[in-house]
Write a structure and sequence with these properties.
single chain, 458 residues, alpha+beta, OB fold (Dihydrolipoamide Acetyltransferase, E2P), BirA Bifunctional Protein, domain 2, 2 domains, 8-stranded mixed beta sheet, 5-stranded mixed beta barrel, 13 helices
């Protein structure tokens, strides 16, 4: 039988469409089970929904079968969809036949009824997709990815597949994973190559031929950082627009965040209710949904880097890192601006040129660049963007200022010689947005198999 065709359907679809009296067939894994003399219950999940479906077993159920119906076992159940007299669910399945597809030794199964810490779940990344938290994370990540694509596709952007292997350091930070093969001195590709830190430079080629484009794929940074916001492998969304300035970039970023967040929240109310339940056990204050609703229902704030530093300097608190013009804003500063001062997402613009990458357009006076970071509560920086430097001589000057050899990016410079346009875009870390929307505190819990310094076991 084809999956999803006929009587066997995902639990999410079953909960939406089944009618009382229907013959149904479901498959999944046991979340919980409880047994009594006359009637027994099994809660089954299949990953399609935050909800389980309750399977009701009559007193005729074989005792040997009951012994196999422990947490973690996989089942195929056929039965009748009926109204439920009990609390907690409106409908349930009155089982007519149960097949144990895969037994599970409940005594050694790592996922029991009791709550399991996220730290422990990271040590069993092969099994944590079965936990309630990671089931919800995966569904939100899936929906977020789909709505990101839909947002850009609906607006005429073309998805460009930029290379994972590159010869350029887009950010100029030198935090690169080098690609090697065999013992050729010149390398497999005839030159030194690396895993990409960004698809932006390559996608700019298409922004000078297709107007509006974006790239969405994995990126890699060899940054020896173990903070909750950093990983060595993560996914980036990088739209790029021709004939655009910094104001256009900011307008796109704000509309993008607001639209995508709203659509994901509307699609998965059950998962956001679960994340809210988890959050209220750990934190006080406004609910997660209240925070998100507040963020996307009002215009985002906007200040220059200089204005932001003035705000921070007036705050009566001891910062771990220094503040003042010329200093780099750290997570504590970013979160203060978004969470406490503005109490909403805020764009910080016009950073000193030495704090940003070589490709960002020099402002008048040539001390700052037309760059922006979007700061959001609980996370800090979620988006980084800029107007790109389209003037050939100024781009060469920027490269020299940042010690980026122009010869290595001859093709990037050449774009400025053949019909160039003002253009700009931004980069959004998928995991950062996922953390902001779900309340997950650690990026390791937003990625199926996190890659961090000293950790690549799975």
């Amino acid at each position: 039988m084809t999956r999803g065709v006929g009587r066997r359907v995902p639990i999410a679809k079953l909960l939406e469409t089944a009618s009382v009296g229907n013959a149904v067939e479901v498959t999944g894994w046991i979340r919980t089970s409880r047994f009594s003399k006359n009637v027994s219950f099994v809660a089954l999940y299949d990953g399609s929904s935050a909800d389980t479906v309750q399977i009701v077993l009559g007193d005729e159920t074989d005792e040997e079968l009951k012994k196999r119906l422990g947490v973690g076992a996989s089942l195929r159940v056929k039965g009748e969809w009926v109204a439920s007299p009990g609390a907690g669910q409106a409908f349930e399945i009155r089982a007519q036949s149960i097949e144990v597809v895969g037994d599970c030794d409940a005594s050694s199964y790592p996922l029991q009824k009791k709550s399991t810490s996220l730290e422990y779940l990271r040590t069993i990344a092969h099994l944590r997709p079965r936990s309630k938290t990671h089931q919800s994370v995966v569904r939100v990540r899936n929906a977020l990815s789909w709505h990101i694509h839909k947002y850009f596709q609906d607006r005429g952007f073309h998805w460009i597949h930029t290379p994972i292997i590159t010869a350029s350091d887009a950010e100029g930070a030198g935090e690169l994973f080098e690609v090697t093969a065999g013992d050729k001195e010149e390398g497999f590709f005839g030159k030194r190559t690396f895993l990409t830190v960004s698809g932006q430079l390559e996608v700019e080629c298409f922004a000078q031929s297709h107007t509006d484009v974006y790239t969405f794929g994995p990126t890699f940074r060899a940054e020896n950082s173990n903070t909750p916001r950093h990983a060595a492998e993560f996914w980036m969304i990088e739209p790029e627009m021709a004939f655009a300035d910094l104001d256009d970039v900011i307008a796109l970023a704000e509309d993008f965040v607001r639209t995508v967040a709203r659509n994901v929240m509307d699609q998965l109310p059950g998962d956001f209710a679960f994340f809210e339940f988890v959050r209220t056990k750990l934190e006080k204050g406004p609910s997660l949904l209240e925070q998100l609703e507040s963020a996307i229902s009002q215009p985002f704030a906007r200040v220059t880097y200089a204005e932001a530093q003035e705000i921070l300097a007036k705050v009566d608190r001891k910062w771990e890192f220094p503040v003042g013009y010329g200093t780099s804003m750290q997570a504590e500063h970013e979160r203060y601006l978004a969470e406490e001062h503005f109490q909403r997402p805020v764009f910080v613009t016009n950073y000193p040129r030495d704090q940003k990458a070589f490709y960002m357009r020099l402002d008048d006076g040539e001390q700052t660049v037309s760059a922006t970071d979007l700061l959001v509560p609980r996370v800090g920086e979620m988006i980084g963007g800029s107007q790109r430097e389209e003037r050939f001589d100024k781009l060469v000057e920027q490269m020299e200022f940042h010690h980026t050899p122009p010869d290595d990016l001859w093709w990037y410079l050449e774009l400025r010689q053949f019909g160039t346009t003002p253009h700009g875009g931004f980069g959004l870390g998928l995991e950062r947005m996922l953390m902001w929307m779900t309340g997950i505190h650690n990026i390791r819990d937003s990625i199926p198999f996190p890659r961090t310094p000293g950790s690549a076991e799975f």
